Amino acid sequence: MPEFFAETIKALALDLDGTLLRPDNSLSERAIQTLKTCLNRGMKVILCTGRSAESSEQYRQAIGAEGPMVYFNGAEVVDMPSGKVLNAGLLDPAVADYCADLARRRGLYYQAYIPQSPTLLITETYAPEAEIYRRHTGIRPVAGNLKDALRSPGVSGCIKSMFITDPSLHEGIRAELLERFGDSIYVVRSSPTFLEILRSGVSKGEGLKYALAYYGLKGAQAAAFGDEENDLPMFAVAGFSAAPINAKEQVRLAAKRVIGSNAEDGVASFLERNLH
Q: Where are the domain boundaries for CATH 3.40.50.1000 in the chain?
């Protein structure tokens, strides 16, 4: 494996939360220096995250990575640091509208990213879940009428939306949405309490394909690192995949290698051992 990795891999596709970042959402100096070494060797570092560009920017800057980054679970591929959106896929506003009704009906927390300038994250009630999200990402949801926001001039959909709720409720929400909208949507868990709804065809895997094509690289030349259900599509694209020991079981089983936990700088440790 070390020989294959060092000779073949030209790009690193990195999930942030639960993978590259420590449990306190910090990026260690060890990880920063290891990834800078990769960049100096000519490797491409591609952040592939459910976060927005704004929420990810401190980490990108610390690493010094540039070029196409995959944000919002693939709903946007953005050239950084220019901020130019290279590829995007918007969720039909009718889906977000239905989700807002579902949230009201079941007493759930729901929010959606609206593609304005700057991007608007809106929720109908600033509940405790909104504060949890703000602490986690640095992005503060704005309380307002979500349905009106979706009907604003120039808005043709939302970038992504999410329920933040107890994991035991996820499958029921997923089942209701898939029964109504079928294969026109992609429903995926991005953290233990985050259930995201995106347009069908949007995923980290599709975003990674676009980013690699930008560089003229193939999937076999990429290594993907991730810990959650939303990372599985990029595992399917990449020639090599690794999951930290703290990853969900289905993700560990899908990965070609299980590495140290995010608390132990598992990604940096693996790269240090395999890129000599």
A: 2-88+202-274
**DSSP letter (8 states) at residue 18:** I
Q: What end-to-end distance do the CA atoms of the chain give, in Å?
A: 13
Where do we find the tokens 């704005």? Answer: 142
Q: Please give the structure tokens belonging to residue 276.
A: 């000599």
- Identify the CATH assignment for 93-199 out of 3.30.1240.10, 3.40.50.150, 3.40.50.2300, 3.40.50.620: 3.30.1240.10
Quote the CA–CA distance of 157 and 113 in Å, as a whole number. 9
Dihedrals φ, ψ of 76, to 5°? Answer: -135, 135
Contact 10, 43 (CB under 8 A): yes
Cβ atoms of residues 228 and 247 within 8 Å: yes
DSSP string, 226-247: --SGGGHHHHHHSSEEEEETTS
- Protein fold of 2-88+202-274: Rossmann fold (3.40.50)
Considering the chain, tell me which residue range(s) the CATH 3.30.1240.10 domain(s) occupy.
93-199
Please report the pLDDT score of residue 1 as a whole number: 44
Q: Give residue-wise pLDDT tens across range 75-104.
A: 999 999 999 999 999 999 999 999 999 999
Backbone angles phi, psi at 71, to 5 degrees: -115, 165
How far apart are alpha carbons 121 and 221 in whole angstroms?
35
> At which residue do the structure tokens 């060092």 appear?
6
> Six-digit token pair at 227?
């810990």
Q: 25-61, pLDDT tens digit by residue?
A: 999 999 999 999 999 999 999 999 999 999 999 999 9
Short-list 107, 114, 167, 173, CA closest to 141? 114
